[in-house]
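Entry 12.
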Amino acid sequence: MGAPTLIEFSAVIGLGLSAVPAVLTAVNLLKFRRAPREPAVSQPISVLIPARDEAASIERTCRAILASDGVELELVILDDDSQDETAAIVRRLAEEDSRVRLIAGRPLPTGWCGKQHACSQLAEAAVHDTFVFLDADVTLKPEALRRAVGFLEASGVALASGFPRQLTGTPVEWLLLPLIQYVLLGFLPLGMSRRSLSPGWPPAAGRCSSPSERRISSRAAIPPSARRSTMASNCRGPTAKRA
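Predicted 3D structure (tokens):
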């Protein structure tokens, strides 16, 4: 039997390397924490949504939030200079339900990225001490907010992030969206990320995963200078909080 060829050697190396994310994914799934099924939530929450040209989805998102059970909430939507009917839709919803508020975004200051600026304004406008940031195209089940906040209370952490179910409707989405979970589960050791205070572990994993922040996290522990200029809204804040 002759010496292995370059192709055979490369295949063995490739197989070994591919096993690394597979093993880490299995370990991460064992450490994955599910939200409690029937938590008793004691605190009211502010659901905060930055929206820009989201007329196609904003009403569905808002009505799903307002149908949440077992939690007292306000819903604040910031209209970030939308050119469609986003603001008009939210105004109509606010007339129907007093829990809904619409605020207009201020002009973008120098040195800020748009979404970070919008989230900062939403945090300033929030009435309650617990924040739940959501994207405008996320549709919640009635128990989602109760379970998310229940997890936050039970774990005692200041910031938690959830993994939503991703609905894929096109071949491009089928190919690209699963890569988010692949990267997070296959290359981010969740156990080390949770235990370490090093700013080298930044992600609030799954930004479609909607971070829930207590007021102290948003206003005090994470300074605006640490989050205003980054395009990754779910990375720089946790990095600054660890530091």
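Annotation: Strands lie at 45-51, 73-79, 100-104, 130-133, 159-160, 212-214. Residues 6-31 form the longest helix (26 residues).
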